[in-house]
Amino acid sequence: MIPFSPAMRRRAAPILAALLLLTAAPAQAAPEDDAALVERISGEVVRKLQESGALDQAIDAGIERYVAKQREAQAAAARQRAEAARSRADKMPPADPARDHIYGNPEARVSLVEYSDFECPFCKRFHPTAKALVDASDGQVNWVYRHFPLAFHNPMAQREAEASECAAELGGNDAFWRFADTLYERTASNGKGMPGGDLGALAAEIGLDRTAFEACLESGRHADRVKKDYETGIALGISGTPGNLLRDNETGKVLVRAGALPLARMQASVDELVKSAPEAGAGDGGGQ
């Protein structure tokens, strides 16, 4: 049933009254079967309502209510997804210097844990932002890089992720970051890779043994490491890249900050995370 406002009811009342008179046929009128009568009355009502504009107004109002309900439902679903992501992210353990690639002070108060894809154009944009955040933090923020190659950027994203692990194997943490920095500078993104696509040449350029690097890459021995990062990201609620999690390493609190956010936004998030931590001894009288 189409709901009508009081004003629309007032406008439609004379129309309906006329139709009622119409259907109160005199005794001598030819009888109509019920279906034909209903059809004639319905058609006349619709025609009159169309002429008066009441029907259009009712339809418009119905559409507006439907759109509002859809927006409300979408917003509620987005809130539920965000809450679920926060709940999963809170389970993220601290970075492991023995395994993780860490830029900056390993003992920093805050870790920016980025789940990233070397072929993601937004990751390429965010890479210098993350570096600037750490460089300006006076040792209070570090950056942890984890792999999250997206299926539609493969096989290139997967291969580049494994290549970066070969760089780390041969040259340690510093070599990983030199390789990652240069790769992000040069890749065309979206699965296209670097012009020429010679990862061995890139390894040699940053000081690694090209033959050893290429043997490592062809062996595929770091594929499981990349897969493990990806699976861990999924478990933490990561669904796209860059998937950024800010962790207060003193309290364990985590903020989800997905996407290639600008430096000012990331800095504000770090400040929010630190300021939200309870002061030492607050609420417990300072006891142990």
UniProtKB/TrEMBL annotation:
UniProt keyword Isomerase, yes or no: yes
Keywords: Disulfide bond, Isomerase, Oxidoreductase, Redox-active center, Signal
UniProt GO MF annotations: isomerase activity; oxidoreductase activity
Annotated stretches, region: Disordered: 78-103
Keyword Oxidoreductase on entry: yes
Cross-referenced Pfam families: Thioredoxin_4
Signal peptide: 1-29
Domain Thioredoxin as annotated: residue spans: 19-275
Basic and acidic residues: bias regions: 80-102
Family note: Belongs to the thioredoxin family. DsbA subfamily.
Protein name: Protein-disulfide isomerase
Organism of derivation: Thioalbus denitrificans
